[in-house]
Amino acid sequence: MIKIQRTDPPTNLTQEKIERLTAEYMETNKNVWNQDYIKNALMKMSHNKCIFCECKLGEESKYIEVEHFHPKSLYPEEVVDWENLLPICKRCNGLKRDHDTKMLPIINPTLIDPKAHLTIKGYRFSSIDDLGKRTIRVLGLNDSDRLFLPRVKIGNEVSNILDGLVRWVEKIRGNNSTEDENELIGKMYNILKSCQPDSEYSTICSYALFRDDNYYEVKEYMQQQKIWNDDLSNLEEVGLKNCLIEHPASHSSV
Description:
This protein is mainly alpha-helical. The chain has 9 helices and 4 strands; from the N terminus they run H-H-E-E-H-E-E-H-H-H-H-H-H. A hairpin with a 2-residue loop joins strand 3 and strand 4. Helix 5 runs parallel beside helix 8. 34% of the residues are buried. Mean pLDDT is 90; it is low at 247-254.
């Protein structure tokens, strides 16, 4: 889960349209929010990901559902209020159900930075406070089959890539060519791209990458060879913002 910048509402969602659709919902109980212009705007806002678990939406079994952060069953007047709409996957939507987010708040990533309330330990979300704890429980963020096991798999893949990079450095150390260095830059660029907001499960990729000493070993070598560039620094900076580890650059075990 990462902080998401709430975008402006789609131009089609005028105040007049909001009032008309809200009245229609009150009268008919129809899915008035099921509009392409609403779903497309939500997908763009969240980088095509579920706002909570970060799975890619639009794939098989992961199509977008429009989430009402404050449930429509309790707050029907907000049924097409742009500030109340979020893109969500079927799994998260099914778990959240009609949880009253006004009486018992959970994290809304467009309003609250998850880093203030959540961390990750051993690929499981861990709470910093009651808001984080309730969010984990309501959304089932440590669901073993659907979330935890895929996180472990992602972590293993990141570790394997870093192991390969260390071996590559050992291979070219002292006998490196421009071609070798460019290949190393490309490999590091690709792994840092997996930690960007538009990448699936970017929080987990960041966790796996920035807690691994191999990453810092390869980075140190690249800095010594003066091939660590601004593009890599920028990607690292953004990735660290997604990282739910306290002080990841300390290389401490988490």
